[in-house]
Design goal:
The structure holds two protein chains of two kinds. Chain A is mostly helical. Chain A is 64% helix and 0% strand. Chain A starts with a helix and ends in a 6-residue tail after the last helix. By secondary structure, chain B is mostly helical. Chain B has one domain. Chain B contains 13 helices and two strands. Chain B has a two-stranded antiparallel ribbon with strand order 1-2. Chain B starts with a helix and ends with a helix. Classes of the chains: A mainly alpha, B mainly alpha. Chains A and B meet through α1, α2 and α3 of A and α1, α3, α4, α5 and α6 of B.
């Protein structure tokens, strides 16, 4: 039962080890000549103006929230799709009602202009 | 039990090594293919036909100075490429790359983890790989990097929904999330692409956007963002982002093969060979795209994801369900 997870854990272990070891190796092997100019932000030779970590456009938050709603929808559809053959017409209609409700939500968001990028 | 542990460890290490090798040589393949598309030769100096080029690149990256920007968030800056590459490499765990083989009288399945929730695992880890991109862009304290990271994150999550929903039709037909079962359900030429052709097209489009490739390579738009989220990265950390990207590319192609193109099924040749042929055909298709199409504008990309692909994938689920209910 838990056997696949042993394999996945082992693979994760090797992958993380690979990433850590290569970065550590390059840290050990590479030259280290830090200068002020080198550690400045790279903006094609122009000195950077103003702080970078400022407020982020609200668009991205809206997209992230929409993502949560619709990704949960997708995850909810998955188990339904697995046993779809055993569910009869009833299961189909129920899921379509669920999808239509969320689709109306999408249309609402759409009409509100949340998907508009200018 | 002991046999199982030894088998899993050996299998995992071998597959991991081969997979990394493929990722390294995909960089060469991409440069060669793009070169020939643009009537150039591509790399040809290191070894015959440039075959040693990936190794030379790797060694070079290893011996380069790593620059950590002064004002960056240093811990996150170092962790970001590690997340990106390790999560992308973890993805191969559930991909069945062949039928079983018999070694020393024991049957060995050619899949690392025969998990019941394989497809869900894939999407979960593909989402985790996004963190590497957005953390990398944010932590480097660079305006281009920040913009690239944010764009990449918004684009990836937008297309992830459509990507997930485009696979639902396949799950409905196969009745399983287990990728091995999905492949077995396609035996005898009943490839899912025949029953779900539209879902296959949606999958390919979403996959291109998910792995940030042309025509959706907005996050690293060279002409306006210099390099996007990995602008401040150098030496091995830069390479790790690239290995992660190519690993993701190959996984996406392998999943397309598994879900739609019958996985390792095929006549005459061994199953592993069939799997690799199909996977690399799709990889070649992705590279071909890069040599052919210009970049889309960012607002158009987001519009395509939310206003076109999402409703159409939902409609595809509806039609698939309707046909299956009526055909019963």
């Amino acid at each position: 039962m838990l056997r696949p997870y042993f394999a996945i854990m082992f693979l994760m272990l090797i992958s993380i080890l690979f990433a850590v070891v290569t970065v550590a190796l390059s840290h050990l092997l590479g030259p280290k000549k830090t200068t002020k100019v080198k550690s400045d932000p790279y903006e094609c030779g122009v000195t950077t103006i103003g702080p970078t970590w400022e407020r982020i456009p609200i668009k991205f938050y809206i997209i992230a929230m929409l993502f949560l709603v619709f990704d949960v929808e997708a995850v909810f559809i998955y188990p339904w799709a697995v046993i779809f053959k055993r569910l009869s017409l009833f299961g189909f209609i129920e899921m379509m009602i669920f999808i239509i409700v969320l689709f109306l939500g999408l249309i609402y968001v759409w009409k509100k202009g949340a998907l508009k990028w200018e | 039990m002991l046999f199982f542990v030894v088998e899993t460890v050996i299998k995992t290490i071998v597959v991991f090594g081969v997979f990394l090798l493929f990722c390294a040589y995909l960089t060469l393949a991409e440069r060669k293919i793009l070169g020939h598309i643009q009537v150039r030769i591509g790399p040809n100096r290191v070894g015959p036909w440039g075959l040693l080029q990936p190794i030379a690149d790797g060694l070079k990256a290893l011996f380069k100075e790593e620059v950590v920007p002064e004002r960056s968030d240093k811990v996150l800056f170092i962790i970001a490429p590690m997340i990106s590459v390790s999560m992308a490499l973890c993805l191969m765990a559930v991909i069945p790359f062949g039928d079983h083989i018999t070694l020393f009288g024991k049957k060995i399945n050619l899949v690392i983890a025969n998990s019941e929730i394989g497809l869900l695992y894939l999407f979960a880890f593909a989402s985790l790989a996004d963190y590497g991109v957005v953390i990398g862009g944010w932590s480097s304290y660079n305006k281009y990097g920040l913009l690239g990271g944010l764009r990449a994150a918004a684009q990836m999550i937008s297309y992830e929904i459509a990507l997930g929903l485009s696979c639902v039709g396949v799950i409905m037909i196969s009745g399983s999330l287990n990728l091995v079962d999905i492949v077995k359900a396609q035996a005898g030429g009943h490839w899912n692409v025949i029953y779900q052709p539209i879902a296959f097209i949606f999958y390919i489009i979403c996959a291109l956007a998910e792995i940030n490739r042309t025509p959706f390579d907005m996050p690293e738009a060279e002409s306006e963002l210099a390099c996007g989220y990995n602008i401040e990265y150098s030496s091995m950390k830069f390479s790790l982002f690239f290995i992660g990207e190519y690993a993701h590319l190959m996984i996406v192609a392998a999943v397309a093969t598994t879900l739609f193109l019958g996985g390792w099924h095929g006549p005459y040749l061994p199953s592993v060979v069939w799997f690799l042929i199909k996977t690399f055909l799709i990889v070649f298709f992705f590279m071909w795209q890069r040599g052919t199409f210009p970049r889309l504008r960012y607002d158009r990309i987001m519009m395509l994801g939310w206003k076109v692909l999402l409703p159409l994938t939902l409609a595809n689920i509806f039609v698939t369900g309707l046909v299956m209910v009526l055909a019963r």
